[in-house]
Amino acid sequence: MAIRTWGNARGAALRVMVSIASSSAFLLFGYDQGVFAGLIGGSAFKDTFNNPDTTTIGTVTAIYEIGCFLGAILTFYIGDKLGRKKAIWLGLLIMLVGTVLQTTAYGLAHMIVGRVVTGIGNGINTSTVPMYQAETTKARSRGRMISIEGWFITIGITISYWITYGTSFSHDAAIQWRTPIALQIAFGLVTAFMLFGLPESPRYLMAKDRREEALEVLALLEGADQQSEAVQSQFRSIQSALEFSRSAANGSAITWRDYFRGGKQQTFRRLALGYCIQMMQQLTGINAVIFYSAYLLENVLQLPRELSLIVGGCTGLTFFVFTFIPIIFIDKWGRRKPLMLGAAGQSIAMAVIAVCVKLSVQDGNKAAGTAGVIFVMVYIATYSGFAWVATPWLYPTEINELRFRNQGAALATSANWLWNFAVVKITPVGAQNLGWKFFLIFMVFNAAFVPIIYFLYPETAGKSLEQLETLFHHTTHAWKLTEKGTHGDDIDLPMGVESMSSDEEDGTKKRASHASISEANEKL
User: Fold this and answer.
1) Of 374, 277, 394, 389, nearest to 322 (Cα)?
2) Tens of pLDDT along 238-247?
3) 515 Cβ contact list (under 8 Å, min separation 6)
4) Which of 259, 289, 336, 467 has a Cα-to-Cα distance from 104 of 20 to 30 A?
5) Dihedral sign of CA atoms 46, 48, 52, 57 in order
C-alpha cells in the first residue's frame, strides 16, 4: 500500500510539512514552558490555591520537569517499539489529558498531578520530535530545520507571556489562569492532526528492516523515483552504516553492556556528549530567567508587578527575534563556534546582572535596576542568537548511531529535564537568600563551557547521519574534528559498500566491508 501524504506532497514540499509539524510540537512545548510563569503571581491563582508560599510555588512549578524526565525515560524504553510518529501521538495524548487535569484543578494536589501528567507527554515529545526531524531532512539543512523548531519554542513562550498578561487584568479564575492553560489543547490537536499526512522516519524503518517502506519514504522525501541515483545512494548509505553497527555487536540485540562500549564506535562517549550538552543548556541559567522572569523582576529588581509582566513579555519578544538568527547561519558556522561564543557572552551578561542586582537592592540605585533589566535582555539575546536554544536538541540526534539514537536522544532529554528541575527548584530560594551572588553561579558555569566544548565536542554540521557514525574511527580528539562536512547525504558511496545481505556470516567479508565503509565516509 502506497504511503499517502497531505496533497500528495513530495520532495521539498514534504520536508517543509515535516518541519511545520515538528515546529508546532515545539510551539506547544514553548507555550507550556512559559505559561505557568505568568500565572503564579496572579490574584485569582493565589486565591484558588490559598496563597501558596514561595517554596510551594517552586514545587508546583518544578514538578512539571519531573514529569518530563519520566516521559524521557519512558521513551528510552518504548521509543523504538512505537516508532517516531506513534511516540509523538502518544506524547500529545498524554499532554492533552494533563492539560484537562490542570484546567479543572481546585487544589494543589490536583494541579500537581496535572502538571506531572502533562510533563510526561512533553518528555516523550521532546525526546522524539528532534530525532524525527533530523532523520527526515538533508545534512545541508538539518541544523536550520531544528533551529526553526527552537524558534517556535520562543514563539510559544512569547504567546504565553502576552496571553497571561492580557488575562491578568481579570479577577475571574476561569479567565485569569484556566483559559491560558486550556489553550494548550488547541495546539496539541493541530499537531496530532498534521502527523496523519506525514511518513515515518526512513531510518527508523531501516532499523526495523522495513526496507521497502524506507525506500518509498526516501523517494518521497527526495521527490524522485525509487530507482534514482539520489535515492539509491541514501538507501545504500543507511543500510551499510546500520549493518556495520550491528556487526560490531555481532548481530545481537542491544544489551546494557553495549551502552558502555568504546572502540571505534565510542558509544558511551556519544551518549555522554548528548547528555552533557543538554545538562549544560540548563546550567547556563536560561530557565532561571524564563520561569521566574516576572518574579525576579518584581522581587529582586523590585519593579511593579504590571511592569514586570510587560518586561517579561519583552523577554519573550527578544527570544523570538534573536532565535531566528541561527536559522540563517547554523549550517554555515557549525555547532561549536556559536556555542563557545554564546557561552562567553552569557558569562559576561550574568556577571553584569549580578552587579546590577547588588547595586539596585543593597544601595537602592534605580539606574542599576534599569541596567539589570537591559542585561537580562542582553543575556537572552546572546543565548538565543548563538544557537543555545536549538543546538542541544540537535546534537544528541546527530552524534548517536542509528541503533542507539532513540536511547541517546531520550537520555539527553532526561538530562535536560532533570537539570531543568534542579534550576527551577532552587531559583526562588537562591535568588531570595543569595541575592546578587546567585547569578555568579551561572557566570562560572557559562565560562567553564567554553573550554569544555572546545576540547570535547566535535563538529557535526554538514555531515550525513551515516557519516557521523564513523566520526571517531580515526581520532578521538574533538578539537581535531572541527571541519564541517560537505552534505554527504547527497553523494553516493563507492562500489563495494553498497550493502551486505542479512545472511552473510563470513567474518572476513564483514571486516572488509566495514573497512570500506570507513574509507567511503572519508571520501564523503
Assistant:
1) 389
2) 999 888 888 7
3) none
4) 289
5) negative
